[in-house]
Amino acid sequence: TPGVLQVALRIRPMSTAELAEGARPIAHRVDEQVVVLRDPMEDPDDVLRASRSREKSYVFDVAFDSTATQETVYRATTRGLVAGVISGYNATVFAYGPTGCGKTYTMLGTDGEPGICARTLGDLFQAIEDTSGDTEYEVSMSYLEIYNEMIRDLLNPSLGCLQLREDASGTVQVAGITEVSAINAEEVMQLLARGNRQRTQEPTAVNRTSSRSHAVLQVTVRQRRQGGGLRHGRLFLIDLAGSERAAQTQNCGQRMKEGAHINRALLALGNCIKALSNQARTKYINYRDSKLTRLLKDSLGGNSRTVMIAHISPASTAFEESRSTLTYAHRAKSIRTTV
To answer: Could you say which residues bind ATP here (predicted)?
Structure first.
């Protein structure tokens, strides 16, 4: 239903690097919805603290462990949004979590295991083909990154830094962004691949090709019925920048500055989510705190369906990162917006 944020959690497999440094798995999926995290620092033989459970459990709408396939994740989180976008609703899917926990894999995947973007677009074009009788559809897309609070067009980076504008109806648009008409899913995936090569990536201690920006794919479906009005639905597919603390990535200088901007945007997103979930108490939602939340204004509140897929590593060495991700995602689960 519109106005509800669905929160999923995905635990990736242990990496070879984690196994090599002797990390143990401390995050486990217990059932369809529950994930348990164990504090690796607590001594199992400490009798005084034995009464306080060393494990904390977190409940989500759906939880996936390392055995979940891309298809399973797509079906449980995103497939149901396609029909809504075609009939004029907005939908947003965003991948959240620390660097190197599988956000880009979930969203883009690989050639052999395509991610949510390819699967969603495939189903979108198929659904349009199946329903277009007396209805004309037009699909267009734009692809941008938000890096250090600046917006860059990934399909045409030479445009430089772009500004956000609000039109008369209150819809937030990126002024001057390239909008490309799209014919089929393959074409969109080629454009995405081209855009990704332009993305700001820098090596950090956590990940060799860490995405230091939020990448936002916006797909707009305009529908015109014969003798009827015009409807349009917008779909945002977002690969957020890594949410980890600076100490983890050993960042300094430029990396540190990026981290501050990334964290500012993620904090603003968290604050909007928190304010939306306490709607009775909060009349004012501060979307203007970051470019990301301004851009997503219509997609967090209002007639939108929103899915957040949070990602963690199961390794004991990632405990702090996993705990803060689980807390953030768990808090997001209580969001209820008014349509």
So the answer is: 97-104
The answer to whether 204 is a known ligand-binding residue is: no
302 among the known binding-site residues? no
Do the annotations mark residue 178 as ligand-binding? no
Return the closest-CA partner of residue 319 out of 27, 56, 9.
27
Residue type, 14: M
At 160, phi and psi to the nearest 5?
75, -150
97 annotated to bind ligand: yes
| Of 174, 209, 114, the residue nearest 295 (C-alpha) | 174
pTM over 0.85: yes
Q: How far apart are CA 58 and CA 36, in angstroms?
A: 6
Q: 297 among the known binding-site residues?
A: no
CA-based torsion, 96, 100, 105, 108: positive or negative: positive
Is 103 known as a binding-site position?
yes
53-79 mean pLDDT = 94
Dihedral angle over CA of 114, 115, 118, 121, nearest 10? 150
Distance CA 81, CA 89 (A): 9
d(CA 101, CA 316): 14
Q: Which domains does the chain have, with CATH numbers?
A: 6-43+51-200+210-262+305-328 (3.40.850.10)
The alpha carbon torsion through 127, 295, 196, 266 (nearest 10 deg) reads -120
Res 225 pLDDT > 90:
no
Half-sphere exposure of 20 (CA within 13 A, CB side): 3
